[in-house]
Design goal:
- The protein is mostly helical.
- It has 2 domains: about 160 residues, Orthogonal Bundle (Ribonuclease iii, N-terminal Endonuclease Domain, Chain A), CATH 1.10.1520; about 80 residues, Double Stranded RNA Binding Domain, CATH 3.30.160.20.
- It is about 55% helix and about 10% strand.
- The chain has a 3-stranded antiparallel beta sheet with strand order 1-2-3, with helices on one face.
- A hairpin with a 6-residue loop joins strand 1 and strand 2.
- Helix 3 crosses helix 8 and helix 10 packs across helix 11.
Length: about 260
């Protein structure tokens, strides 16, 4: 999807743009009345030339506040026995760049983000900061288009597993240690990590890493360093394992792994 001239209104969509936005709405589970809000929400500043008001930054600013409000509400209601300090740690984990980027990847938002050619070729679609910002901007767009009820419903849906991870002590932020504890309990095996993509110049690289368990890919993530990418991959793997175990808690270890939808 190519951004139009900065002076052109975002509401003038080509047929191909409209089709892609329809697909994105299907993935989000949200139907927009004002589709230009969604288009702006996925437009990174790199694609807007000198007119950054056409980027998603203002919607991101709004979405960040809506997200914080809803997550605080969720934590207050769902964890009545936890102190304020514990809830603050839960919130920090849930709205962190890593958690939001993982949720964005799960939705497939990276396929739709509008970037400059340079940003796209340097790995921008997998960059955690761009992914998390786009998700917050989409939240802001939903709020502007449909109100707080729809925004709340969307946030609770896409971050449901992240809230559960917070409850199980994943908020400490060391996703690799948490994943190793989980896999050791599951099949007495520690996960391995491999770098699959390196993009960008030497001074500004982005790494994409896969987490593997018994030669099966259980998560992937990106970061500006290999360590950050491994933590992101571990966070995604934890989300996947939580989803699989929720589906059928009676699965044996072998059945659990064989039924993992992210495995090769």
């Amino acid at each position: 999807m190519k951004l139009k001239d900065p002076g052109e209104a975002l509401t003038h969509l080509s047929e191909s743009d409209s089709s892609r936005l329809d697909l994105l709405q299907d993935r989000l589970g949200v139907s927009f009345r004002d589709i230009s809000l969604l288009e702006r929400a996925i437009t990174h500043r790199s694609a807007t030339s000198e007119n950054h008001q056409l980027s998603n930054e203002r919607l991101e600013f709004l979405g960040d506040s809506i997200l914080g409000l809803v997550i605080c509400e969720v934590l207050y209601k769902e964890f009545p026995d936890h102190y304020e300090g514990e809830l603050a740690k839960f919130k920090a984990f849930i709205v962190s760049e890593t958690s939001l980027a993982a949720a964005a990847l799960e939705l497939g938002i990276e396929d739709f983000i509008v970037l400059s050619h340079g940003e796209a070729t340097s790995g921008g679609r997998k960059r955690s900061s761009i992914l998390s910002d786009a998700l917050e901007a989409i939240i802001g767009a939903i709020y502007m288009d449909k109100g707080i009820t729809s925004a709340r419903k969307f946030i609770r849906k896409v971050l449901r597993k992240t809230v559960k991870l917070a409850e199980t002590d994943q908020h400490r932020g060391d996703y690799k240690s948490s994943l190793q504890e989980r896999t050791q309990a599951l099949c007495r095996t520690a996960p391995l990590y491999r770098v699959v993509i390196e993009t960008g110049q030497d001074h500004d690289k982005t790494f994409t890493v896969e987490a593997l368990l018994q030669d099966r890919v259980i998560g992937a993530g990106s970061g500006k360093t290999k360590k950050q990418a491994e933590q992101s991959a571990a966070a995604n793997a934890l989300r996947t394992l939580s989803e699989c175990s929720d589906t059928d808690e009676s699965l044996t270890d072998e059945q659990f792994l064989n039924n993992n939808p992210t495995t090769n």
